[in-house]
Design a protein that fits this description.
The protein is of the alpha/beta class. It is 33% helix and 18% strand. It has 13 helices and 14 strands. It has a ten-stranded mixed sheet with strand order 5-4-6-7-1-8-14-13-9-10, sandwiched between helices. Helix 3 crosses helix 6, helix 7 packs across helix 13 and helix 10 crosses helix 11. The longest helix is centred in the first third of the chain and has 17 residues. The two termini are 17 Å apart.
Length: 411
């Protein structure tokens, strides 16, 4: 018998708020985080809009010296974990630290550290490279720094599956607790890739929106969509074995009940055109939860606002759910915060928990006229009601598909 896993804490650093409460208020206000890139001069760049985190100072969340030895993606992860642990009320003095682990992924790590070092290498030679370059740059350092900062000595992993990283990280933490390898896991994703290489690389792929209108840039499922908008930030949740949470009187925000994965084995950037890979991941999550596909009424879609993703994900939902698909509610959180890459699935997971808790499904902001083949209900307006389950999808370059199913908590 596998163990039940619940959510007892959440933390977020996003383009529309530097805490879960700020983020969620922004979601309900249909606030968007899009604007002209301020991190570097975009005069020569095709893409000029991103969803930047504003007002973040690492020293507000950790020791100044510690912050200096971390790149932004690691700082974001530490800040989000701090909020999540505080909300969960985890007291490490009372825990066996070897039973508290970390599963926090980043798709890319620090492009900025690489850019700076490359310039220095060309200008001043190899002997002038920062001795800390490698530990600043590599993407496992988000999990490593979180573990060090908070004394979490259990399993510590960094899942890297591109845009599916956040969902896989939470899913693997769920499995870790289910099967007894930990009692508590800090799980999620983090990213900070709004940099010259990041933006020019995704632009060269023609993946980024060409819009220069912050109101019409990230518009998932809309006929005028032209690509995704790069976002940044982190989201971390505290997953906990149910009896462990009850024993310490923790507040429970939701339950994780299913996790499913698959690989398209098709193309390095495009999802399978028939949606079969993503459909399999969704159905695997539903089967894992032991429920019927018809029990799922709501999906938080990957919904990137690229032509291929939104079309093929729509096909995947129809393939997985058949006639029931037309009765489902679907939305995309990326319509407000853009695509947080390795952190996307994690912030969307938090969104699902909040939506179930409050009986409020947010609108896909900016959606005016859906594409002809995108013919499901994508929540042009918010929807209120009593929702028991939320299915969150993430689809990553390389064909990685991950779906996680959360449930409104019941004893």
């Amino acid at each position: 018998m596998s163990r039940r896993v619940v959510v007892t804490g959440m933390g977020a650093i996003t383009p529309i708020g530097l805490s879960v409460d700020e983020f969620w208020e922004g979601v309900k206000e249909q606030k968007t985080g899009f604007g002209y890139i301020t991190k570097f001069d975009t005069a020569d760049y095709k893409c000029k809009i991103a969803a930047e985190v504003k007002g973040f100072e690492g020293k507000n969340y950790m020791d100044f010296k510690a912050a200096k030895r971390m790149e932004l993606f690691s700082q974001y992860a530490v800040a989000a974990t701090k909020e999540a642990l505080e909300q969960a009320g985890i007291d490490m003095e009372k825990e066996d630290p070897y039973r508290v682990g970390v599963s926090i992924g980043s798709g890319i790590g620090s492009l900025q550290a690489m850019e700076t070092a490359h310039s220095k290498l060309l200008d001043k030679g190899p002997n002038r490279i920062n001795p800390l370059l490698v530990p600043l740059m590599i993407c496992n350092m988000a999990a490593g720094n979180v573990s060090i900062q908070f004394g979490l000595k259990g399993k510590s992993i960094n899942v890297v599956t591109a845009c599916a990283t956040g969902t896989n990280s939470i899913g693997e933490a769920f499995r870790t607790i289910q099967y007894g390898d930990a009692d508590v896991m800090a799980a999620g994703g983090t990213e900070s890739s709004i940099s010259p290489i990041g933006v020019s690389g995704f632009s060269a792929l023609t993946a980024l929106s060409s819009s220069e209108d912050p109101e019409r840039c990230s518009i998932p499922f809309d006929k005028d969509r032209s690509g995704f908008v790069m976002g940044e930030g982190a989201a971390v949740v505290i997953l906990e074995e149910l009896e462990h949470a009850k024993a310490r009187g923790a507040r429970i925000y939701g339950e994780v009940v299913g996790y499913g994965c698959s690989s398209d084995a098709y193309h390095i950037t495009s999802p399978a055109e028939d949606g079969s890979g993503a459909a399999t991941a969704m159905l695997n999550a539903v089967k894992d939860a032991g429920i019927a596909p018809e029990d799922v009424i709501y999906i938080n879609a990957h919904g990137t606002s690229t032509h291929h993703n939104d079309l093929f994900e729509t096909r995947a939902i129809k393939l997985a759910f058949g006639d029931h698909a037309k009765d489902m509610k679907i939305n995309s959180t990326k319509s407000m915060v853009g695509h947080l890459l390795g952190a996307a699935g994690a912030i969307e997971f938090i969104t699902c928990i909040k939506e179930l808790e409050e009986g409020y499904l947010h609108a896909t902001v900016g959606l005016k006229e859906p594409d002809e083949e995108c013919d499901l209900d994508y929540c042009k307006e918010p929807v209120t009601g009593d929702f028991k389950y939320a299915l969150s999808n993430s689809l990553g370059f390389g064909g990685h598909n991950a779906s996680i199913l959360v449930k409104k908590y019941e004893d």
